[in-house]
Every structure is written in structure tokens, then in C-alpha cells.
Specification:
This protein has 740 residues and is an alpha+beta fold. The protein is built from 19 helices and 35 strands.
């Protein structure tokens, strides 16, 4: 197996001082705690060209050939290129690997028991491989395989496509630096005379004679055509084969991108976790625009992008909470194009329903709720240029016309009519059969998660309506945003599943009730997590709990409550609820805001304590340094914000809660050439508590700041200390805003 120390090494810049990209360690989290790990991804920011080694995770002994393009985040790749020096040939080689060095823009690895070496660099829609063969006594072969499609050799180029589904294809065009001695379809382990292959494992093979020590190839990809793939390659790599030049340009682009955030102080590991987390937020969504056109799986057609790049592959349930707000802050123009892409998808699908999980192959409608509305509301109130009328229409239709049943894109059905009448999704009692055909057998109704998530979505909808001056709609949806009250149990002070008659289902265990993943009541997380899932109205939640002291007591208990079973039994039922601190789970997105809720109850010092505890415990510079499914920025955007000292608890409000920054001096570049600084005097691992603060030179006694405070440029100065100042930010009029 590869040596761990090698995997954790990072390339340094040629100068004495590291640049931001030198702090990126793509191996962090490559071994998962339980579910899906991170993957060591080579990709320029938001680029169509994404690559990671074709192995299950870091511990896998072999790779399936050399990767060509990832076509769905962490789930699907297309094509493979396999080097050989033995026969018979196969479509895909199973290669051992060693001496790997991987950066965001390049890859260098030895293969096949150290007999050959592969070096890769990437552009946005193309890449280049340089293959070195240490044994020159034998001929060299390459097999280029499409798992399901066509491959052909034409005028010295290798072209083809792979079908991803019934109407979406990814296309490939390969150029070789040197003409091979032989090329043709792979047949019975040998190179045949035909130059065209079709079907499963359609494969072209090429041969170079003995004495060959190096083979260079470069390729373009497209979702439009092979001709466009070739154009993409020749546009991005117009000169001679130059892997080092491509890598240098990629390095420069990553440095420019990551330098929007600059920090001083902290430890080397803390900087590594910060910049690696920031790099992860650029994995998705990906830009599909190619020379002003893009393929859309939402209608199966090619469209002009009209100057707005088209983005897809975005799991909004995971990313609306922090990844979209991070982009809205630092790169609002890109966020505007992403939202416009969502609106086009809604139109292209024909339903005018806002998508929720848009991927390369279309909207998969995974998870629950319709949180694209949060993305829109947040952008509008932060001053982004969004077509509010279209967005409001498509968000409203998505909530009103599509079923609320999880993992379904079907029209509204039985449970939706019930929600509209009663304000909650009814739960089934044990043994009660499902009556609504839109509900899936495994995902269930998720009644509390859907009720709470939809209440938040309806609040976001009321915000958009208010922005547009639609007073009646704003009031209607604001009223519906209180629907979480319908499932509040005042005796237990938890959100509790109810049957269709309006009775709480008893007995019920807030830790283990609800079956696998708690889906018969919640979703992936138990009742302790969803107790806090009222992102828009913590003021009201505080009242429901009986006031500030009760809310703080219940928050404290969340971090202290035992798992209640052994780890094997706990995770067997709740595999997504890893990264535990008591019943709090750092590994799943519905928990991200929970440490900040203390700010709403007059105890900001406890938020400061919890944020440091979460970051220090669960996000580390090692192979298991991510506690759960990362989801392309879902978790790591929390790390970025929290490391900087502020976090967007409620997308839809243009405000950020203050936590406890990790660094002494933080600069965040915002549009217009402005910079927002956070200076944390005497900040250290021990000095994590805010003693006092000033904002632009004036005393600041609130545990939150506005979006304008940041984008207008300015300086937040925090005096940090070893012991908490329990009065700072604690007054009743200092709390962050909630729905009214």
C-alpha cells in the first residue's frame, strides 16, 4: 500500500513562503468515518473537467485505469485510459499505484508496481497526460474505453462518447503527440483492423514499438459533440504538448481564486484545513458552457447561454446553508449565473418547478424540501441581480404544485393536500400501511423534516414576495412559516410526529424513533437534531421552549446527551449521524447552525466555545479529517465561514452570526476592490472567547454583523481572552434577527 506520509505531503511553491494553493491537501477525508469519503479531486474552480483517481477510496489497492472525467459528483466517471506493456489487452487495466502526489491542478503517480508513471494537468474542458515507461524493451499499448457508447479512430485522433442515460452523452476527443505504430478496435485482447467500436466497453487500442519511453496525449471533453470536444481542447491548449505549462496555469488560477481569503496567525494545520475546505467549495456546481452554448439534460437540447454561464450538479439540500452564501459574498456574479441556471432548468423541464438536485443528467429530486427558494431569497436581500419575478413563480410552483414527498418529482398528492389544510405532514403509526403512491418505500414520509423544511421554505417565499411588493402573498406565506408549531410537543419540547387525527404518536424515542435513518419521523438525523430546525425563527423557538434559560439548558443537553446505545447499534440505525458531540452531529448539514443558536439566547460565549470544539475535534489535517459526507461544499463551507469568525445561520436574512475566529488577522476580498478584515487580538487555541469588539472603530456589542458591513469593506476587531466575557453580546436587544 502507499505510504501515508507520502499521501499527506503537499507540494510547495518555489519560494520560501507558501502560497494559498500549497495549503490544499486533497487527501483530507479520503477515508470516511462511515459513509462516503471525500475524493482527491483535480479540477479548476467549477470546471467541467473534474478528475479523481478511479479507486473507491484511499485504502483501495488498485485503480481502474487512468481517469478521464467525473460526470456526477462522487458517484460517476466516464471513459478510462489504460497503459499496458503486456498482452492480452483488456478494456480497463487494474493498476497498482504508489508515490502519488496530487494537487488541485495536477497528478503524479507511479503505476503497475513502479514500472510506469502518469503525470496529469487539467484545464477547464481539457487535460493532458504524460506517460513514462521505465522498461523500454517491450512495446507500449494504450486502451481507451467507453463503458457504454462508441469509440473510433479518425485522422490520427481518437474520438467517442459515453452514454450517461437515455439522452445525455459525454464526448471525448484525444490527440496523441506521436503517431502510434498501430491503432484499432480492441478484439480478443489484440488490436484489430476495424477503427470503430460500439456498445458495452467500446474500446480503441494503440501500440507504440519497443524503445518507447514516453507517450503524451491530451484530450477535450464536451456534452455537446465530439467536434465541440476537439474545439474545447484546441481552444485551451493551442500550442505544442505542454503539461508543465498547463499545470502552471492551473496553479496560478487556484492561487488567484483562493487568495480571496488571506489569513495570518493560527497553526499550519489550521491553514491547511481552511484552504482545503475552501477548495472543496469549488467542486460544484460545474460550468457546462462551451463557446457560448451548453447542453441541458432538462430538455435534452443544446442552448445558447446568452452570456450567462450554465451551471449544474448541485445538491441544494446540502449547499444552500453555507456554500451558496459563501459564493454570494465573494463571487456574486457567479452566484447570479447559477441562480439563472436554476430558472432555465425550471423552464426547460416544462413544469416551471424550481429544481432541488440538478445534476448533469437532470434533476434527481433527492432529499426533501425545496430549498432553492432559500438560495433566491438570500441572493435578493444581499443585492444580487436575480430575476425575482421568474424566481418567485418557479419557487412557488415547486412548493405548491410538486409533491412534498421526499425523493419525488411527481405532482402534489394526498399528503400535500393534508399539509395545506392542517399545516403538517401526517406520520404513520407502526404497522400502518402507506396510502400515498408518491411516497417511496425506503425514504418514507419524513414528516417532521418535511414540515419544518417547508415552513422555512415558505418563510423564504414570503421574503421574495415582500421584495416584489406582493403584500398579500408575503403575509400568507409568513403565516405558513409558523407551521412548525403544529408538531411542537409542549410537554417534551421536541418536534414530535403526529398522526392524521392530530395525535402525537406515543410512545416515541427522540433518539431512535423513526426506523432506519429516522425517516419515518425525521431524515438521516434524529429528533435531537430536528429540535433546532427552525432556521428562520429562533426567537419563537426560544418562547416555545420557555425562554432563554430553557433554550440554553436544552442546547447544553444536546451536546451532553449520551448516544444511548453502543456505537455499532447507534450507527446501524443512524449511519449519517456521525461526528457526535453528545447528540449533536457535526457530520450532517441540518446541524451546522446549532452551535450558533446560543447567540439568540444571550450566551454568545457558548457559541464561541462550541465552534472551536467542533472545528478542533472534527476537521483535521489527516485522512479521516472530515466527519461525514462532504457533499461538495456542504460541510466545508461551514468550516470556511466558522474559521473566519462568522456564519450565515439563516439564508434569507442578510446577516451573519459571530463565532470565534481561528486566526489573528483575516482578510476577505469582496467585489469592488474592497476588503473586510477580522482582527482577533491575542487569538490562540486557549484565547477563544471574545472580551470586547469594535466594528469600524466603534464599540460593537452584538453577536452578529450585516452583509453590508462586510461588502462595504471595514474592520471587525475582537479582543480575545482565555475566559469568557459572559456579558458581551448578551443583552436582549443584541440578538440576531428572526422572522416577525
Amino acid at each position: 500500500m502507499p505510504v501515508l506520509a507520502l499521501a499527506l505531503s503537499m507540494p510547495l511553491s518555489t519560494g520560501a513562503e507558501k502560497e494559498p494553493v500549497d495549503y490544499v491537501n486533497p487527501y483530507i477525508g479520503n477515508i470516511s468515518h462511515l459513509l462516503v469519503p471525500t475524493f482527491a479531486t483535480i479540477q479548476l474552480p467549477h470546471s467541467m473537467m473534474r478528475i479523481y483517481p478511479a479507486r473507491q477510496d484511499y485504502t483501495t489497492e488498485r485503480m481502474s485505469g487512468l481517469p478521464v472525467i467525473v460526470t456526477n459528483h462522487r458517484e460517476r466517471s466516464a471513459f478510462s485510459i489504460s497503459p499496458w506493456q503486456t498482452t492480452p489487452l483488456q478494456p480497463v487495466a487494474q493498476l497498482t499505484w504508489d508515490q502519488e502526489k496530487l494537487t488541485p491542478y495536477s497528478w503524479d503517480v507511479e503505476l503497475d508496481d513502479n514500472t510506469m508513471r502518469a503525470q496529469l494537468a487539467v484545464e477547464h474542458q481539457s487535460a493532458i497526460y504524460e506517460l513514462t515507461f521505465y522498461d523500454t524493451k517491450e512495446p507500449v499499448y494504450l486502451t481507451i474505453n467507453s463503458a457504454n457508447g462508441e469509440m473510433w479512430e479518425e485522422d490520427g485522433k481518437i474520438m467517442g462518447y459515453q452514454s450517461l442515460d437515455r439522452r445525455t452523452k459525454v464526448y471525448l476527443a484525444i490527440e496523441l503527440a506521436e503517431k502510434p505504430s498501430k491503432a484499432g478496435v480492441l478484439e480478443d485482447g489484440k488490436i484489430g483492423n476495424s477503427t470503430h467500436a460500439e456498445g458495452r466497453n467500446a474500446c480503441i487500442a494503440v501500440e507504440y514499438p519497443a524503445g518507447t519511453s514516453k507517450v503524451e496525449l491530451r484530450y477535450g471533453v464536451s456534452f455537446i459533440s465530439t467536434e465541440q470536444a476537439l474545439k474545447n481542447l484546441q481552444r485551451e491548449q493551442p500550442e505544442a504538448f505542454d503539461r508543465e505549462g498547463v499545470a502552471k496555469a492551473g496553479r496560478e488560477e487556484w492561487n488567484e481564486t483562493l487568495s480571496n481569503i488571506m489569513v495570518k496567525g493560527g497553526t499550519e494545520d489550521q491553514k491547511t484545513v481552511l484552504y482545503t475546505s475552501y477548495y472543496r467549495t469549488f467542486e460544484r456546481p460545474v460550468c457546462l458552457s462551451e463557446d457560448g452554448r451548453y447542453y441541458s439534460a432538462f430538455d435534452g437540447n443544446v442552448h445558447d447561454d446568452n452570456g450567462h454561464h450554465f451551471y449544474t450538479d448541485d445538491w441544494i439540500w446540502d449547499t444552500y446553508r453555507a456554500a451558496h452564501p459563501l459564493r454570494a459574498l465573494i463571487d456574486p456574479q457567479k452566484e447570479e449565473d447559477i441562480i439563472e441556471s436554476y430558472l432555465r432548468m425550471a423552464e426547460q423541464m416544462g413544469t416551471e418547478w424550481m429544481p432541488t438536485f440538478p445534476e448533469i443528467t437532470g434533476d434527481t429530486r433527492r432529499m426533501n424540501s425545496n430549498h432553492g427558494v432559500a438560495m433566491v431569497a438570500d441572493a435578493l436581500y444581499k443585492g444580487l441581480d436575480v430575476d425575482a419575478e421568474r424566481a418567485y413563480l418557479y419557487c412557488r410552483k415547486g412548493i405548491e404544485e410538486k409533491t412534498l414527498a421526499p425523493w419525488s418529482g411527481k405532482p402534489a398528492s394526498e399528503i400535500d393536500e393534508f399539509y395545506k389544510t392542517h399545516g403538517y405532514i401526517p406520520a404513520l403509526r407502526e404497522g400502518e400501511e402507506e396510502t400515498d403512491p408518491v411516497v417511496t418505500g425506503f425514504e418514507k414520509r419524513q414528516p417532521i423534516a418535511v414540515t419544518l423544511g417547508t415552513a422555512y421554505d415558505q418563510w423564504c417565499l414570503s421574503r421574495i414576495a415582500s421584495y416584489l411588493g406582493k403584500k398579500d402573498d408575503a403575509e400568507k406565506y409568513l403565516d405558513k412559516s409558523y407551521n412548525y408549531r403544529t408538531v411542537w410537543n409542549p410537554e417534551t419540547k421536541f418536534f414530535h410526529p403526529k398522526d392524521k387525527e392530530g395525535n402525537f404518536i406515543e410512545p416515541f424515542d427522540y433518539r431512535f424513533g423513526g426506523g432506519i435513518g429516522a425517516r419515518e419521523a425525521y431524515d438521516e438525523n434524529n429528533g435531537w437534531t430536528y429540535r433546532w430546525d427552525v432556521q428562520h425563527n429562533f426567537a419563537d423557538l426560544c418562547e416555545l421552549m420557555g425562554g432563554r434559560e430553557e433554550l440554553i439548558k436544552n442546547l447544553d443537553q444536546t451536546f451532553a446527551e449520551p448516544m444511548g446505545r453502543g456505537k455499532r447499534e447507534f450507527y446501524e440505525q443512524l449511519p449519517d449521524q456521525t461526528g457526535n458531540i453528545g447528540q449533536f452531529t457535526m457530520a450532517n448539514e441540518p446541524s451546522l447552525h446549532i452551535p450558533y443558536i446560543y447567540n439568540y439566547a444571550g450566551a454568545p460565549w457558548k457559541t464561541q466555545k462550541r465552534i472551536r470544539q467542533c472545528l478542533d475535534t472534527w476537521f483535521r489535517n489527516d485522512l479521516m479529517g472530515v466527519p461525514g459526507d462532504e457533499d461538495g461544499g456542504g460541510l466545508t463551507s461551514f468550516v470556511v465561514f466558522s474559521s473566519l469568525g462568522f456564519y450565515p445561520v439563516t439564508p434569507g436574512f442578510p446577516v451573519y452570526n459571530i463565532g470565534s475566529p481561528l486566526f489573528n488577522d483575516i482578510s476577505v476580498k469582496v467585489p469592488g476592490g474592497k476588503t473586510f478584515r477580522v482582527i482577533a487580538n491575542d487569538c490562540s487555541d486557549e484565547n477563544k472567547y471574545i472580551q470586547s469588539a469594535t466594528l469600524n472603530g466603534k464599540p460593537w456589542d452584538k453577536p452578529w454583523i450585516s452583509h453590508d458591513d462586510i461588502v462595504n469593506g471595514g474592520t471587525l476587531v475582537l479582543q480575545m481572552g482565555r475566559h469568557p466575557n459572559k456579558s458581551w453580546g448578551a443583552s436582549a436587544d443584541a440578538v440576531p434577527p428572526s422572522a416577525e
